[in-house]
5-methyltetrahydropteroyltriglutamate--homocysteine S-methyltransferase (Streptomyces polygonati), 543 residues
Amino acid sequence: MAHPSGWWCSWFALSARQGVVRGVYDYPRQGADRELKKAVEGYWKGRITAGTLRRTAAGLRRANWRRLAEAGLGEVPTGDFSYDDHVLDTSVMVGAIPARHRAAVERDALDGYFAMARGTQEVAPLEMTKWFDTNYHYLVPELGPDTVFAADSARRVAELTEALMLGHNARPVLVANLDDLATVGGLPGKRLVGGVVDGRNIWINDYENPLATLATLLGLAGQVDVSASCSLLHVPLDTAPEGDIDPQILRWLSLARQKTAEIVTLARGLTRGTDTIAAEIAANRAALAARANSPITRDPAVGARTAAVTAADAHRSRPYEERAAAQRARLGLPPLPTTTIGSFPQTPDLRAARADLRTGRTGTAGYEQRIETAIAEMIAFQEHAGLDVLVHGEPERSDTVQYFAERLTGYLATRHGWVQSYGTRYVRPPILAGDTARQVALALRDEVISLEAARSRMQAAGELATAGYPRAAGPGVYDIHSPRVPTTDEIADLLRKGLTAIPADRLWVNPDCGLKTRDWPETRASPENLVTAARTVRAEPPA
């Protein structure tokens, strides 16, 4: 019953309870104020010790267990906490450590772990890709004929023991392929997890349908656990801090803490009868109806414009080949044109400027002058580096998605709705609360696609060619998720691979994402190497 994007497997052998148990696979691990992010980055920068980092992590784990137990969950999960990524943790647990990282792991397990996640200047990290269709990025295990597995369950056992010693009824969770569990046989006598609370979206659950499903499951299996459909890593932590959102909309939202409460309510209704949660069902039904009928969610003007859209609106007046030729001529683009994705480092000075504007310490004119100065500096750097197509660097945007969402009707931006994207990178996805309007320029969207594919070493270029993709692509020639600066030779080798699948007039040379999370020293070095590599490969005779 678990959604595939969860891919968590719970080990049930330690619990002897019968009937209905309330539980979750895992819980957001960052802390209410992203304490984990700050501690890990502090360790990387040498501001705190490994011991301090471990103590911070232990405190966050215990706080999560306590909060889940106090919320009424019958079991708390263990083994779900991670400094970076739970798939990487599983690779380490089974000994699947790439040869290039083994010495570092043996020398210092924590630093070696982070080297696998981020890379170092000497060693490349593991490939990173999205977890099914979510925005969570996991580190892909490197498995091959020479992989020698060596299980080390010490950390998992230690965390389980810790939870038990604190008085919790604990359930270990592991990453596993649920398809492999389909051979367990029939359900009688089995313990079944009913993932009836949607762990992916941020809206309240409809109580009545899940209760009917759970009742059916209880008649089929020996024991039913009421749970979320997947990991709760995919939603923010709590609605409580969001004081800027309309209270009516807040009643429609269900984040990790609210989903936990929904699980507890449904389990109580299943075990004690729906009469015991009649008030909750009535409030839930009213909130669902209010959202469905609210003018916040429906804009007649948007509906009318949508109804007027025809098939002709999906087509441009001139074919791609003609548009591409005009673009190359207008911009004077060479083969293998170079650019960046859009953003440049969000420095402490830029963050301070936005904070000063919010608090009134700086007026609009003073703020805009600081932004214009930053833009001029970013353009000057790109001109010096020799990039073919320049960007303004987005200094006025803390987050591009949020920036546009704040300028569209129907979208809401949160202040504390952080969701882990990868490692210590957390984002605040905007909430689409209703019909949206306002034209936003997306002219390049169907002209050039850029991909977060640097760690896959141009595999995406071959896949695009196989699929017959006819337009320009920038598969990404260096990984912005790592502080590592790629060498000119490395980038040139990737371009040569890319050219076997995509011709030079359609292959763009760019990093695999924006540069806002990077520091300026590596940002200066990497695009300069990118330009040098592109010029080198341009000068080579066609293969």
The chain is about 40% helix and 10% strand.
